[in-house]
Design brief:
Radius of gyration: 20 Å
CATH topology of the largest domain: Rossmann fold
Number of strands: 9
Strand order of the largest sheet: 3-2-1-4-5-6
Order of helices and strands: EHEHEHEHEHEEHEHEHHHHH
Distance between the termini: 52 Å
Number of helices: 12
CATH superfamily of the largest domain: NAD(P)-binding Rossmann-like Domain
Length: 291
């Protein structure tokens, strides 16, 4: 059993912290939300009203925070120099590569080992302990992080050096955003051409049009495995979060001089979808744009 501080108990972090408890860890949790803290306590976490209190004596610190500015601020002010220097630091937030590297450099300068370990899988996977972790950091830090992350996921993959986890996450979600839009366009067109949508699914799911967006997360209600489409496009992965990831991808592409026209168009379409008041809807709800 390890003493693990967990910072950020939102839709993703709450389930992740609960799975660390189930794995036998002593989880010391912090969030700004009293409601989130109450849920964490119900799940077996010890809760605190400040980050500094939560990280005292921790053997590892896991964070799941909204953006890079908050990650930078929390680590600079309340983790580095407050948690024992022997503590392993694991940031599971999805943030820009530059900030991930900046925070990891600061941690290493202060004597800590740290990894960036963003996730793929959404709320259901966070609750079910079936996330995929893409991890950036040294071989030694990854070896220490792997058993902690494995308690929260089905796959833990070392992507490379500091920041590589964030790079992998951004590239992965750019594929996801673009393929979901293409899948939605195809189903909308199939319907307008008079095809039965279940029949189209049966064909395309076994043909070259198959993708995760179709066969694991179909945007059409009643077609394929259960997905947010069967629940009014609620739950899952919010369109506003997809837009956040696509914006990170566009920033990364600009800094790297990469040409990403499909990713750019996906970002534009999700921006319009969110600005129309659909940011809280699951990202597969963008099919409504084409129907």
């Amino acid at each position: 059993m390890s003493k693990i501080a967990f910072i950020g108990l939102g839709n993703m972090g709450g389930g992740m912290a609960a799975n660390l408890v189930k794995a036998g860890h002593d989880v010391h949790a912090f969030d700004l939300s009293a409601e989130a803290l109450a849920r964490a306590a119900d799940n077996g976490c010890t809760t605190y009203t400040s980050v500094r209190e939560a990280v005292q004596g921790a053997e590892a610190v896991v964070s799941m925070l909204p953006n890079g500015a908050i990650v930078d601020s929390v680590y600079a002010a309340d983790v580095i120099g407050q948690a024992p220097s022997s503590a392993l630091l694991l940031d599971c937030s999805t943030i820009d590569v530059a900030t991930a590297r900046k925070v990891e450099d600061a941690a290493q300068a202060a004597g800590y080992e740290m990894v960036d370990a963003p996730v793929s899988g959404g709320i259901a996977a966070a609750n079910g302990g079936t996330l995929t972790f893409m991890v950036g950091g040294s071989d030694a830090a990854f070896a220490k992080a792997e058993p902690i992350l494995a308690a929260m996921g089905k796959a833990v993959i070392h992507a490379g050096a500091s920041g590589a986890g964030q790079a992998a996450k951004i590239c992965n979600n750019m594929i996801l955003g673009a393929t979901m839009i293409a899948t939605c366009e195809a189903f909308a067109l199939a319907e307008k051409l008079g095809l039965d949508l279940q029949t189209f699914y049966d064909i395309s799911s076994k043909a070259s049009g198959q993708s995760w967006s179709m066969t694991s997360y179909c945007p059409v209600p009643g077609v394929g495995p259960a997905s947010p489409a069967d629940n009014g496009y609620q739950g899952g992965f919010a369109a506003a979060l997809m837009l956040k990831d696509l914006k990170l991808a566009m920033e990364a592409a600009a800094s790297a001089g990469a040409d990403v026209p499909m990713g750019q168009r996906a970002e534009e379409l999700y921006a319009a979808f969110a600005e129309a008041g659909n940011g809280g809807m699951d990202f597969s709800g963008i099919i409504k744009t084409f129907q």
